[in-house]
Amino acid sequence: VGALDVERIRSDFPILEREFDDQQVVYLDNAATTQTPDPVVDAMSDYYRYTNSNVHRGIHHLSQEASEAYERAHDRVAEFIGAGGREEVIFTKNTTESENLVAYSWGLNELGPGDEVVLTEMEHHASLVTWQQIANQTGADVKYIRIDEDGRLDMDHARECITDDTAILSAVHVSNTLGTVNPVAELTELAHEHDALSFIDGAQAVPNRPVDVEAIDADFYAFSGHKMAGPTGIGVLYGKQHLLEEMEPYLYGGGMIRKVTFEDSTWADLPWKFEPGTPQIAEAVGLEAAIDYLEEIGMERIQSHEEELAEYAYERLEAEGDVEIYGPEPGPDRSGLVGFNLESVHAHDLASIMNDHAVAIRAGDHCTQPLHDKLGVAASARASFYVYNTREEVDKLVAAIDDARQLFA
Ligand code: PMP
Question: φ and ψ at 337, to 5 degrees?
């Protein structure tokens, strides 16, 4: 796998040229949202300029074109993640809505007292809060697979947690706080051995590595457009066709029905059954363009570029001596983000000093409060990388840390 032409890639992202107080922005908040390259912005603005219309196959030319573009985007996503076809690809608002769709549609109907939902201690609130609340409503129990000292899942504990009482396992593919890459195929296999379903949160995985949902054998898999060079407002729920067919709709309305009478209604075919109302048409066009963009670079290349930067950042931060880094050491089960704390400085203060240097990082609980409780800290700082980041930008991050240390000494 050859290296990325980062300079060439950066020219597609004018936002990276922005300056604050005469300093060029160093954007290291990619795990929250990635930047959007010109081809994606162009695809969306072209859609609004030349194609904009409602979908659901209106009679006129524009509606036909908009419908085709919207439908085709499902095919493109299916191909990208190795799904069987558009029937298995539902467009949602984001990963969070994908979680809620399954929790409400499947969980609320299928779970009851005696059933167990198995999560991991590193779940994002998107899955943790959702399953916790659905379990509370249905009388099901929630169990958490422990993490070990290095921030990896304790797979012996996973084997203890997943039993014949397990109804569904919901696990994050890549942790947005620790950077851990979880063995999701193995977890799914464990779930299936006990006739349980598996839901994988791929919000931090699909943007930066090849993902094949059929190889993982996940029953459900979710991710967001805005973390993979695509627009906000669109997310994906992959689900196995036979499961989606059995599930009740999550939201009702126009566009998702087959036949409606004053008394009752029947549902449209997949995936439309789960996409009521006027959908995110321009965003679907943008997501397709983002997939084209990423695949042209190559997902393997993106993965190794990010891992290289994360490893460099890890080494530089470790060499500082007073920086605590969370998650596994660099290696095959660590992704392109680094969560850390500087001993003497609160993560929020650190992020604020970084901001004085135009270095954009995130500080807070990253929607993993229980995990932070377990780590024994209220907040952490997080630098996360993408295709356009460079080693020089990691150097600027470290220089800003040195500045923060001096200011607070
Ligand atoms: N899961 C993980 C692992 C995430 O990192 C995020 C985003 N921080 C989400 C879920 C939620 O994504 P969204 O806000 O797009 O719904």
Answer: -145, 150
